[in-house]
Amino acid sequence: MQQRSEETRLKILESAVKLFSSRGFNAASVDDICADAGISKGAFYHHFKSKQELFLALLDGWLQTIDNAIEASKDMTVPETFMQITEAFPYIFETANEGLPMFLEFWLQASRDEKIWQASVKPYRRYHKYFTDLIKKGVDEGSFVEVDPELTSRMIISTAMGLLLQSLMDPKGAKWEKVARDSTTMLVNGMLKK
Amino acid sequence: MQQRSEETRLKILESAVKLFSSRGFNAASVDDICADAGISKGAFYHHFKSKQELFLALLDGWLQTIDNAIEASKDMTVPETFMQITEAFPYIFETANEGLPMFLEFWLQASRDEKIWQASVKPYRRYHKYFTDLIKKGVDEGSFVEVDPELTSRMIISTAMGLLLQSLMDPKGAKWEKVARDSTTMLVNGMLKK
DNA sequence: GAAATAAAACCGACTGGTCGGTTTGTTTTT
DNA sequence: AAAAACAAACCGACCAGTCGGTTTTATTTC
Protein backbone atom coordinates (compact mmCIF):
# COMPACT_ATOMS: atom_id res chain seq x y z
CA MET A 1 0.00 0.00 0.00
CA GLN A 2 1.40 3.33 -1.02
CA GLN A 3 -1.70 4.90 0.37
CA ARG A 4 0.18 6.54 3.20
CA SER A 5 2.64 7.96 0.72
CA GLU A 6 -0.14 9.48 -1.32
CA GLU A 7 -1.70 10.91 1.82
CA THR A 8 1.58 12.59 2.74
CA ARG A 9 1.81 14.10 -0.70
CA LEU A 10 -1.67 15.49 -0.44
CA LYS A 11 -1.02 16.87 3.02
CA ILE A 12 2.03 18.70 1.69
CA LEU A 13 0.03 20.11 -1.22
CA GLU A 14 -2.75 21.27 1.07
CA SER A 15 -0.44 22.93 3.54
CA ALA A 16 1.44 24.56 0.71
CA VAL A 17 -1.67 26.17 -0.75
CA LYS A 18 -2.72 27.31 2.68
CA LEU A 19 0.61 28.86 3.61
CA PHE A 20 1.53 30.20 0.18
CA SER A 21 -1.75 32.03 -0.05
CA SER A 22 -1.71 33.36 3.48
CA ARG A 23 1.95 34.32 3.77
CA GLY A 24 3.22 34.36 0.22
CA PHE A 25 5.54 32.04 -1.65
CA ASN A 26 8.80 33.30 -0.17
CA ALA A 27 7.61 33.94 3.34
CA ALA A 28 6.24 30.42 3.66
CA SER A 29 9.34 28.32 4.17
CA VAL A 30 9.69 24.62 3.53
CA ASP A 31 10.02 24.17 7.28
CA ASP A 32 6.71 25.95 7.81
CA ILE A 33 4.99 23.73 5.30
CA CYS A 34 6.44 20.60 6.87
CA ALA A 35 5.35 21.73 10.31
CA ASP A 36 1.83 22.49 9.10
CA ALA A 37 1.60 19.17 7.30
CA GLY A 38 2.95 17.38 10.33
CA ILE A 39 5.81 15.72 8.50
CA SER A 40 9.57 16.02 8.34
CA LYS A 41 11.77 17.72 5.83
CA GLY A 42 13.02 14.37 4.68
CA ALA A 43 9.52 13.36 3.75
CA PHE A 44 9.05 16.61 1.90
CA TYR A 45 12.13 16.17 -0.23
CA HIS A 46 11.20 12.58 -0.84
CA HIS A 47 8.05 13.74 -2.58
CA PHE A 48 9.25 16.96 -4.21
CA LYS A 49 12.58 17.80 -5.74
CA SER A 50 12.41 21.40 -4.60
CA LYS A 51 10.13 24.15 -3.37
CA GLN A 52 9.75 25.27 -6.95
CA GLU A 53 8.74 21.81 -8.12
CA LEU A 54 6.12 21.81 -5.40
CA PHE A 55 4.69 25.00 -6.79
CA LEU A 56 4.72 23.60 -10.31
CA ALA A 57 2.73 20.66 -9.01
CA LEU A 58 0.15 23.11 -7.67
CA LEU A 59 0.09 24.86 -11.04
CA ASP A 60 -0.64 21.52 -12.68
CA GLY A 61 -3.61 21.07 -10.43
CA TRP A 62 -5.04 24.44 -11.36
CA LEU A 63 -4.51 23.75 -15.02
CA GLN A 64 -6.54 20.61 -14.54
CA THR A 65 -9.31 22.66 -12.95
CA ILE A 66 -9.35 25.01 -15.89
CA ASP A 67 -9.54 22.17 -18.35
CA ASN A 68 -12.37 20.53 -16.46
CA ALA A 69 -14.36 23.75 -16.45
CA ILE A 70 -13.78 24.16 -20.16
CA GLU A 71 -14.76 20.56 -20.82
CA ALA A 72 -17.94 20.94 -18.76
CA SER A 73 -19.16 23.89 -20.83
CA LYS A 74 -18.55 22.16 -24.15
CA ASP A 75 -22.15 21.58 -25.13
CA MET A 76 -23.59 24.98 -24.30
CA THR A 77 -24.24 27.80 -26.69
CA VAL A 78 -21.81 30.70 -26.53
CA PRO A 79 -24.13 33.18 -24.79
CA GLU A 80 -25.06 30.47 -22.32
CA THR A 81 -21.39 29.90 -21.57
CA PHE A 82 -20.81 33.57 -20.91
CA MET A 83 -23.87 33.64 -18.71
CA GLN A 84 -22.53 30.75 -16.72
CA ILE A 85 -19.13 32.34 -16.33
CA THR A 86 -20.75 35.53 -15.12
CA GLU A 87 -22.82 33.58 -12.63
CA ALA A 88 -19.78 31.75 -11.34
CA PHE A 89 -18.00 35.06 -10.88
CA PRO A 90 -18.08 35.29 -7.10
CA TYR A 91 -16.46 31.90 -6.79
CA ILE A 92 -13.92 32.52 -9.54
CA PHE A 93 -13.11 35.90 -8.13
CA GLU A 94 -12.52 34.56 -4.65
CA THR A 95 -10.38 31.67 -5.82
CA ALA A 96 -8.32 33.84 -8.11
CA ASN A 97 -7.93 36.42 -5.41
CA GLU A 98 -6.43 33.79 -3.20
CA GLY A 99 -4.18 32.30 -5.83
CA LEU A 100 -3.00 35.35 -7.73
CA PRO A 101 -0.59 36.80 -5.15
CA MET A 102 1.34 33.60 -4.68
CA PHE A 103 1.39 32.96 -8.37
CA LEU A 104 2.65 36.44 -9.13
CA GLU A 105 5.29 36.26 -6.45
CA PHE A 106 6.51 32.92 -7.68
CA TRP A 107 6.40 33.97 -11.25
CA LEU A 108 8.16 37.28 -10.71
CA GLN A 109 11.17 35.68 -9.13
CA ALA A 110 11.35 32.45 -11.05
CA SER A 111 10.30 33.38 -14.55
CA ARG A 112 13.89 33.94 -15.64
CA ASP A 113 14.16 30.16 -15.67
CA GLU A 114 12.97 28.91 -19.05
CA LYS A 115 11.29 25.74 -17.79
CA ILE A 116 9.44 27.56 -15.06
CA TRP A 117 8.41 30.32 -17.39
CA GLN A 118 6.94 27.73 -19.75
CA ALA A 119 4.94 26.17 -16.96
CA SER A 120 3.74 29.51 -15.65
CA VAL A 121 2.62 30.80 -18.98
CA LYS A 122 0.66 27.69 -19.80
CA PRO A 123 -2.51 28.50 -17.82
CA TYR A 124 -2.56 31.97 -19.29
CA ARG A 125 -2.26 30.69 -22.86
CA ARG A 126 -4.93 28.12 -22.25
CA TYR A 127 -7.35 30.78 -21.12
CA HIS A 128 -6.53 32.92 -24.10
CA LYS A 129 -7.07 30.06 -26.50
CA TYR A 130 -10.32 29.19 -24.79
CA PHE A 131 -11.75 32.67 -25.08
CA THR A 132 -10.50 33.14 -28.60
CA ASP A 133 -12.18 29.92 -29.72
CA LEU A 134 -15.33 30.76 -27.84
CA ILE A 135 -15.67 34.20 -29.40
CA LYS A 136 -14.87 32.85 -32.85
CA LYS A 137 -17.62 30.31 -32.38
CA GLY A 138 -19.99 33.04 -31.26
CA VAL A 139 -19.23 35.07 -34.34
CA ASP A 140 -19.62 32.07 -36.64
CA GLU A 141 -22.87 31.08 -34.99
CA GLY A 142 -24.15 34.57 -35.57
CA SER A 143 -24.82 35.41 -31.95
CA PHE A 144 -21.97 37.92 -31.85
CA VAL A 145 -21.23 40.87 -34.09
CA GLU A 146 -18.02 40.74 -36.14
CA VAL A 147 -15.27 41.31 -33.58
CA ASP A 148 -11.64 40.34 -33.62
CA PRO A 149 -11.57 37.20 -31.44
CA GLU A 150 -7.87 37.55 -30.60
CA LEU A 151 -8.15 41.15 -29.48
CA THR A 152 -11.39 40.61 -27.66
CA SER A 153 -9.98 37.68 -25.76
CA ARG A 154 -7.03 39.79 -24.65
CA MET A 155 -9.40 42.51 -23.54
CA ILE A 156 -11.54 40.12 -21.53
CA ILE A 157 -8.49 38.70 -19.81
CA SER A 158 -7.15 42.19 -19.22
CA THR A 159 -10.34 43.20 -17.54
CA ALA A 160 -10.31 40.13 -15.34
CA MET A 161 -6.64 40.42 -14.42
CA GLY A 162 -6.80 44.16 -13.96
CA LEU A 163 -9.82 44.02 -11.71
CA LEU A 164 -8.26 41.24 -9.70
CA LEU A 165 -5.12 43.29 -9.22
CA GLN A 166 -7.07 46.38 -8.30
CA SER A 167 -9.16 44.47 -5.79
CA LEU A 168 -5.97 43.14 -4.25
CA MET A 169 -4.34 46.54 -4.07
CA ASP A 170 -7.32 48.36 -2.70
CA PRO A 171 -9.80 45.83 -1.34
CA LYS A 172 -12.06 48.45 0.17
CA GLY A 173 -11.76 50.92 -2.71
CA ALA A 174 -14.88 49.60 -4.40
CA LYS A 175 -17.45 46.83 -4.42
CA TRP A 176 -15.25 44.78 -6.67
CA GLU A 177 -17.68 42.02 -7.29
CA LYS A 178 -20.19 44.48 -8.65
CA VAL A 179 -17.54 46.25 -10.71
CA ALA A 180 -16.48 42.92 -12.16
CA ARG A 181 -20.06 41.99 -13.00
CA ASP A 182 -20.79 45.33 -14.62
CA SER A 183 -17.61 45.23 -16.67
CA THR A 184 -18.32 41.76 -17.96
CA THR A 185 -21.87 42.70 -18.79
CA MET A 186 -20.65 45.74 -20.70
CA LEU A 187 -18.11 43.73 -22.64
CA VAL A 188 -20.55 40.97 -23.55
CA ASN A 189 -23.34 43.42 -24.42
CA GLY A 190 -20.95 45.15 -26.75
CA MET A 191 -20.53 41.90 -28.64
CA LEU A 192 -24.07 40.54 -28.64
CA LYS A 193 -26.04 40.93 -31.86
CA LYS A 194 -29.40 42.57 -31.19
CA MET B 1 28.10 72.31 0.61
CA GLN B 2 26.37 68.96 0.95
CA GLN B 3 26.57 68.46 -2.79
CA ARG B 4 28.55 65.29 -2.44
CA SER B 5 25.95 63.90 -0.10
CA GLU B 6 23.17 64.59 -2.56
CA GLU B 7 25.17 62.97 -5.34
CA THR B 8 25.60 59.81 -3.29
CA ARG B 9 21.89 59.69 -2.63
CA LEU B 10 21.16 60.01 -6.31
CA LYS B 11 23.70 57.33 -7.19
CA ILE B 12 22.00 54.96 -4.77
CA LEU B 13 18.59 55.75 -6.23
CA GLU B 14 19.84 55.18 -9.77
CA SER B 15 21.55 51.91 -9.00
CA ALA B 16 18.49 50.76 -7.11
CA VAL B 17 16.16 51.35 -10.05
CA LYS B 18 18.60 49.65 -12.35
CA LEU B 19 19.09 46.56 -10.21
CA PHE B 20 15.53 46.28 -8.90
CA SER B 21 14.18 46.33 -12.42
CA SER B 22 16.74 43.94 -13.86
CA ARG B 23 16.96 41.43 -11.00
CA GLY B 24 13.89 42.13 -8.91
CA PHE B 25 13.50 43.66 -5.48
CA ASN B 26 14.55 40.65 -3.47
CA ALA B 27 17.30 39.40 -5.71
CA ALA B 28 19.03 42.76 -5.75
CA SER B 29 20.77 42.90 -2.39
CA VAL B 30 21.83 46.05 -0.59
CA ASP B 31 25.41 44.94 -1.18
CA ASP B 32 24.76 44.75 -4.90
CA ILE B 33 23.33 48.25 -4.93
CA CYS B 34 26.27 49.60 -2.95
CA ALA B 35 28.72 47.93 -5.31
CA ASP B 36 26.95 49.31 -8.34
CA ALA B 37 26.76 52.79 -6.86
CA GLY B 38 30.39 52.59 -5.86
CA ILE B 39 29.74 53.35 -2.21
CA SER B 40 29.89 51.49 1.06
CA LYS B 41 27.15 49.93 3.09
CA GLY B 42 27.71 52.53 5.75
CA ALA B 43 26.95 55.28 3.28
CA PHE B 44 23.84 53.47 2.21
CA TYR B 45 22.45 53.22 5.70
CA HIS B 46 23.44 56.78 6.33
CA HIS B 47 21.03 57.85 3.61
CA PHE B 48 18.26 55.30 3.95
CA LYS B 49 16.85 53.68 7.03
CA SER B 50 16.27 50.38 5.26
CA LYS B 51 15.91 48.69 1.91
CA GLN B 52 12.18 49.25 2.15
CA GLU B 53 12.59 52.95 2.84
CA LEU B 54 14.74 53.15 -0.26
CA PHE B 55 11.94 51.68 -2.30
CA LEU B 56 9.44 54.06 -0.76
CA ALA B 57 11.72 56.91 -1.85
CA LEU B 58 11.55 55.55 -5.41
CA LEU B 59 7.76 55.37 -5.13
CA ASP B 60 7.70 59.01 -4.12
CA GLY B 61 9.59 59.92 -7.25
CA TRP B 62 7.12 58.10 -9.45
CA LEU B 63 4.21 59.74 -7.70
CA GLN B 64 5.82 63.04 -8.53
CA THR B 65 6.03 62.02 -12.18
CA ILE B 66 2.35 61.17 -12.23
CA ASP B 67 1.41 64.47 -10.67
CA ASN B 68 3.53 66.40 -13.14
CA ALA B 69 1.89 64.62 -16.06
CA ILE B 70 -1.54 65.35 -14.65
CA GLU B 71 -0.64 68.97 -14.06
CA ALA B 72 0.70 69.33 -17.61
CA SER B 73 -2.58 68.21 -19.17
CA LYS B 74 -4.71 70.53 -17.06
CA ASP B 75 -5.71 72.96 -19.80
CA MET B 76 -6.61 70.50 -22.54
CA THR B 77 -10.07 69.33 -23.46
CA VAL B 78 -10.97 65.82 -22.40
CA PRO B 79 -10.77 64.20 -25.84
CA GLU B 80 -7.44 65.96 -26.38
CA THR B 81 -6.14 64.54 -23.14
CA PHE B 82 -7.12 61.02 -24.12
CA MET B 83 -5.51 61.55 -27.49
CA GLN B 84 -2.31 62.62 -25.83
CA ILE B 85 -2.32 59.66 -23.47
CA THR B 86 -2.82 57.33 -26.41
CA GLU B 87 0.07 58.94 -28.23
CA ALA B 88 2.36 58.64 -25.24
CA PHE B 89 1.48 54.98 -24.99
CA PRO B 90 4.75 53.49 -26.22
CA TYR B 91 6.69 55.42 -23.62
CA ILE B 92 4.22 54.78 -20.82
CA PHE B 93 4.06 51.13 -21.73
CA GLU B 94 7.82 50.72 -21.68
CA THR B 95 8.28 52.57 -18.41
CA ALA B 96 5.48 50.70 -16.71
CA ASN B 97 6.78 47.43 -18.06
CA GLU B 98 10.08 48.10 -16.40
CA GLY B 99 8.66 49.27 -13.12
CA LEU B 100 5.71 46.94 -12.64
CA PRO B 101 7.61 43.76 -11.74
CA MET B 102 9.67 45.35 -8.99
CA PHE B 103 6.68 47.20 -7.69
CA LEU B 104 4.57 44.06 -7.60
CA GLU B 105 7.30 42.07 -5.94
CA PHE B 106 7.81 44.71 -3.30
CA TRP B 107 4.15 45.19 -2.77
CA LEU B 108 3.33 41.49 -2.55
CA GLN B 109 5.74 40.91 0.26
CA ALA B 110 5.49 44.18 2.13
CA SER B 111 1.87 45.17 1.82
CA ARG B 112 0.97 43.52 5.12
CA ASP B 113 2.66 46.47 6.73
CA GLU B 114 0.11 49.25 7.07
CA LYS B 115 2.48 52.13 6.37
CA ILE B 116 3.90 50.47 3.30
CA TRP B 117 0.49 49.53 2.06
CA GLN B 118 -0.60 53.14 2.33
CA ALA B 119 2.39 54.30 0.32
CA SER B 120 1.93 51.62 -2.32
CA VAL B 121 -1.74 52.23 -2.84
CA LYS B 122 -1.28 55.96 -3.23
CA PRO B 123 -0.20 55.98 -6.90
CA TYR B 124 -3.09 53.72 -7.79
CA ARG B 125 -5.64 55.88 -6.04
CA ARG B 126 -4.23 58.96 -7.67
CA TYR B 127 -4.68 57.44 -11.11
CA HIS B 128 -8.18 56.37 -10.30
CA LYS B 129 -9.13 59.83 -9.07
CA TYR B 130 -7.54 61.36 -12.13
CA PHE B 131 -9.50 59.24 -14.58
CA THR B 132 -12.73 59.55 -12.65
CA ASP B 133 -12.48 63.34 -12.67
CA LEU B 134 -11.48 63.39 -16.30
CA ILE B 135 -14.43 61.27 -17.39
CA LYS B 136 -16.83 63.23 -15.24
CA LYS B 137 -15.57 66.37 -16.89
CA GLY B 138 -16.02 64.78 -20.30
CA VAL B 139 -19.60 63.89 -19.50
CA ASP B 140 -20.35 67.34 -18.12
CA GLU B 141 -18.77 69.01 -21.13
CA GLY B 142 -20.97 66.92 -23.35
CA SER B 143 -18.19 65.22 -25.27
CA PHE B 144 -18.92 61.85 -23.65
CA VAL B 145 -22.17 59.92 -23.42
CA GLU B 146 -23.59 59.32 -19.96
CA VAL B 147 -21.29 56.73 -18.42
CA ASP B 148 -20.49 55.93 -14.83
CA PRO B 149 -17.16 57.70 -14.24
CA GLU B 150 -16.18 55.48 -11.31
CA LEU B 151 -16.82 52.25 -13.17
CA THR B 152 -15.29 53.50 -16.38
CA SER B 153 -12.13 54.58 -14.62
CA ARG B 154 -11.79 51.16 -13.07
CA MET B 155 -12.26 49.58 -16.47
CA ILE B 156 -9.62 51.77 -18.08
CA ILE B 157 -7.15 50.98 -15.33
CA SER B 158 -8.05 47.31 -15.58
CA THR B 159 -7.32 47.29 -19.24
CA ALA B 160 -3.98 49.01 -18.74
CA MET B 161 -2.92 46.81 -15.84
CA GLY B 162 -4.19 43.66 -17.45
CA LEU B 163 -2.42 44.31 -20.72
CA LEU B 164 0.75 45.18 -18.89
CA LEU B 165 0.60 41.93 -16.99
CA GLN B 166 -0.17 39.92 -20.09
CA SER B 167 2.70 41.51 -21.97
CA LEU B 168 5.01 40.65 -19.10
CA MET B 169 3.80 37.08 -18.93
CA ASP B 170 3.91 36.41 -22.62
CA PRO B 171 6.01 39.11 -24.30
CA LYS B 172 5.94 37.40 -27.66
CA GLY B 173 2.35 36.28 -27.48
CA ALA B 174 1.07 39.34 -29.30
CA LYS B 175 2.01 42.77 -30.58
CA TRP B 176 1.16 44.28 -27.26
CA GLU B 177 1.57 47.85 -28.25
CA LYS B 178 -0.99 47.43 -30.97
CA VAL B 179 -3.34 45.54 -28.69
CA ALA B 180 -3.04 48.31 -26.12
CA ARG B 181 -3.73 50.96 -28.73
CA ASP B 182 -6.74 49.12 -30.13
CA SER B 183 -8.18 48.52 -26.69
CA THR B 184 -7.87 52.16 -25.70
CA THR B 185 -9.40 53.27 -28.95
CA MET B 186 -12.32 50.91 -28.43
CA LEU B 187 -12.89 52.12 -24.89
CA VAL B 188 -12.73 55.78 -25.83
CA ASN B 189 -14.87 55.34 -28.94
CA GLY B 190 -17.47 53.66 -26.77
CA MET B 191 -17.68 56.84 -24.70
CA LEU B 192 -17.49 59.53 -27.37
CA LYS B 193 -20.72 61.20 -28.35
CA LYS B 194 -21.17 61.06 -32.10
C1' DG C 1 43.33 83.14 7.90
C1' DA C 2 45.08 79.41 10.39
C1' DA C 3 44.29 76.27 13.97
C1' DA C 4 40.76 73.92 16.68
C1' DT C 5 36.45 71.90 17.01
C1' DA C 6 32.21 69.97 15.66
C1' DA C 7 29.37 67.58 12.54
C1' DA C 8 28.21 65.08 8.63
C1' DA C 9 29.48 61.53 5.37
C1' DC C 10 31.49 57.39 4.64
C1' DC C 11 33.93 52.79 5.25
C1' DG C 12 33.83 47.69 5.72
C1' DA C 13 34.25 43.89 8.83
C1' DC C 14 31.05 41.57 11.50
C1' DT C 15 26.61 39.59 13.44
C1' DG C 16 22.57 37.14 13.94
C1' DG C 17 19.41 34.75 11.82
C1' DT C 18 16.95 32.49 7.90
C1' DC C 19 16.22 29.13 4.67
C1' DG C 20 16.67 25.79 0.85
C1' DG C 21 18.57 21.73 0.44
C1' DT C 22 21.57 17.40 1.93
C1' DT C 23 22.97 13.53 4.56
C1' DT C 24 22.56 9.97 7.52
C1' DG C 25 19.93 7.02 10.06
C1' DT C 26 15.36 4.70 11.27
C1' DT C 27 10.83 2.72 10.39
C1' DT C 28 7.36 0.81 7.50
C1' DT C 29 5.76 -1.68 3.56
C1' DT C 30 5.81 -5.44 0.38
C1' DA D 1 15.66 -8.54 3.01
C1' DA D 2 15.19 -5.00 -0.19
C1' DA D 3 13.02 -0.83 -1.29
C1' DA D 4 10.24 2.92 -0.29
C1' DA D 5 8.90 6.33 3.11
C1' DC D 6 9.98 9.11 6.71
C1' DA D 7 12.74 11.53 10.69
C1' DA D 8 16.17 14.63 12.45
C1' DA D 9 20.44 16.72 12.58
C1' DC D 10 23.20 19.36 9.79
C1' DC D 11 25.43 22.40 6.05
C1' DG D 12 26.56 26.38 3.54
C1' DA D 13 25.17 30.42 1.33
C1' DC D 14 23.01 34.60 1.74
C1' DC D 15 21.68 38.95 3.42
C1' DA D 16 19.69 43.00 6.03
C1' DG D 17 21.28 45.64 9.27
C1' DT D 18 25.00 47.24 13.01
C1' DC D 19 28.93 49.44 14.84
C1' DG D 20 33.46 51.24 15.81
C1' DG D 21 36.29 53.84 13.53
C1' DT D 22 38.11 57.13 9.58
C1' DT D 23 37.84 60.84 6.30
C1' DT D 24 35.82 64.91 4.55
C1' DT D 25 33.40 69.20 5.12
C1' DA D 26 31.62 73.08 7.73
C1' DT D 27 31.89 76.18 11.70
C1' DT D 28 33.98 78.52 15.38
C1' DT D 29 37.77 80.56 17.85
C1' DC D 30 41.72 83.30 18.34
SSE run of chain A:
HHHHHHHHH
Show unreliable segments of chain A.
Answer: none
Total helical segments of chain A? 9
Name of the top-level CATH class of the largest domain in chain A: Mainly Alpha
CATH topology of the largest domain in chain A: Tetracycline Repressor, domain 2
- What is the global morphology of chain A? elongated
The largest inter-chain interface, given as chain pair and residues per side, is: A-B, 37 and 37 residues
Within CATH, the superfamily of the largest domain in chain A carries the name Tetracycline Repressor, domain 2
Tell me briefly what this model is.
2 copies of one chain form a homodimer. Chain A is built from 9 helices and no strands.
Description of the structure:
Two copies of one chain form a homodimer. Chain A has 194 residues and is mainly α. Chain A has two domains: 1-48, Arc Repressor Mutant, subunit A (Orthogonal Bundle); 50-191, Tetracycline Repressor, domain 2 (Orthogonal Bundle). In chain A, 80% of the residues lie in helices and 0% in strands. Chain A contains nine helices and no strands. The longest helix of chain A is centred in the middle third of the chain and has 28 residues, at 114-141. The radius of gyration of chain A is 19 Å and the shape is elongated. The interface between A and B is large, with 37 and 37 residues. The structure holds a DNA duplex (30 and 30 nucleotides).
